What does this fold into?
Amino acid sequence: MRILRAERRAAVPWSNGGGLTREVAAHPPGAGWDAFAWRVSLADVTRDGPYSSLPGVRRILTVVDGAGLELTVDGAVHRLPGRFRPFAFPGAAATGSRLLGGPVVNLNVMCREGRATAAVTVVRGSREVAPGPRTTAVVVAVAGDTWLGAEAAGEPGVRLGRFDAAVWEPPGDAAAPVVVRTDGAAALIELSDVNGTAATGC
It folds into this structure.
């Protein structure tokens, strides 16, 4: 397991001036836009505007802070009021967004078609996570504090503050289960190659 603290992420301004992106994790590590198999990031969105076209990429967007937004995807309008409602759409679609009540923070998951699949689940309370041998799991604390530990350890475990993350790389065999506990909300992102076990979402 790797722990990725929010305070260590670099903020990259958008070319259109509409926000900032902070990469949480990607595969391969450090891959650019034309080379990643999957990418997880957090974006501060400050104004309405179009999204970049990403042919061959599937996207899952989850508002994690703010009043929500409205997405128009190939002419179809989708209102995403409030927080913690994952929404999947094709990266190649003509997409624009409108803020519903001021700036938002979005959790963005992207996976390249034919190379990776992804699923996003919002955890409240607790949940056991046991990635399979071909699956990477990413947990991002999106509200309150989150703790990671073994069910029977009797210890509080590793604490994740808001927007901190943890990554389980694919093990040679099935990984030992880890319990995710949160007093707010945490996003569980399960990512697999095309022959893996997580087949919904992207």
In short: The radius of gyration is 16 Å. The first strand starts at residue 2 and ends at 4. Residues 25 and 40 are 5 Å apart (CA to CA). The mean pLDDT is 89.
